[in-house]
Amino acid sequence: MTGTPAGQDRGIHVSGHGTFTGNAQTGDRSSASFTGGPRPADAGESAEIVRLREAVEALRARIRDLAPDELSAAEGTAAESALAEVEDALPDGSEAGQGRVRNAFFTVSGALASVASLAESVRALRDAAAPWF
């Protein structure tokens, strides 16, 4: 086991959520949960990016409100991973960033296609992501 040099923080990178700093537990029976709020808009972000971030957070909220029998764990995990990818790709305006947003949207819409109650939220996400298509 290695130690952290004095004066340096320990951290674990959590995809789409930045860095976690604090105690972490590992092992066969370990579990973790993440509770967060919407990311504050950066002063330099365009209206399109703010709109897309809001659509991502609104869809996350709708997914959290679903009953367990409405969305399988695998579909939920795929959708959350893709939503994190959308956030990670912003505000990158490069062609690669645009491709990441498009691919993540297609993953989200594919994972949630069978959930009729999310159709409106997925449509809102598609509309918000339109500048990247």
Give a short overview:
The protein is mainly α and 133 residues long.
Written account of the structure:
This protein is mainly alpha-helical. It has a domain of 89 residues: Substrate Binding Domain Of Dnak, Chain:A, Domain 2. The protein is 48% helix and 5% strand. The chain has 4 helices and 2 strands; from the N terminus they run ββαααα. A two-stranded antiparallel sheet has the order 1-2. The termini are far apart. The model has no long low-confidence stretch (mean pLDDT 75).
Secondary-structure topology with pairs:
Elements: E1 12-14, E2 18-20, H1 47-64, H2 73-89, H3 95-112, H4 119-129
Antiparallel strand pairs: 1-2
Helix pairs in contact: 1-2, 1-4, 2-3, 3-4
The main β sheet shows up as: 2 strands, antiparallel
Listing every helix as H and every strand as E from the N terminus to the C terminus, the arrangement reads EEHHHH
* Rounded mean pLDDT score: 75
CATH class of the domain at 44-132: Mainly Alpha
Overall form:
globular
Query: Helicity, in percent?
Result: 40-55%
Number of strands: 2
Task: Classify the secondary structure makeup into a structural class.
Answer: mainly alpha
Question: How many DSSP H or I helices?
Answer: 4
The largest sheet has its strands arranged as 1-2
Distance between the termini: 47 Å
Q: Write down the oligomeric state.
A: single chain
- Percentage beta strand: under 5%
Which architecture name of the domain at 44-132 does CATH use? Answer: Up-down Bundle
Radius of gyration over all CA atoms, rounded: 17 Å
Low-confidence stretches: none
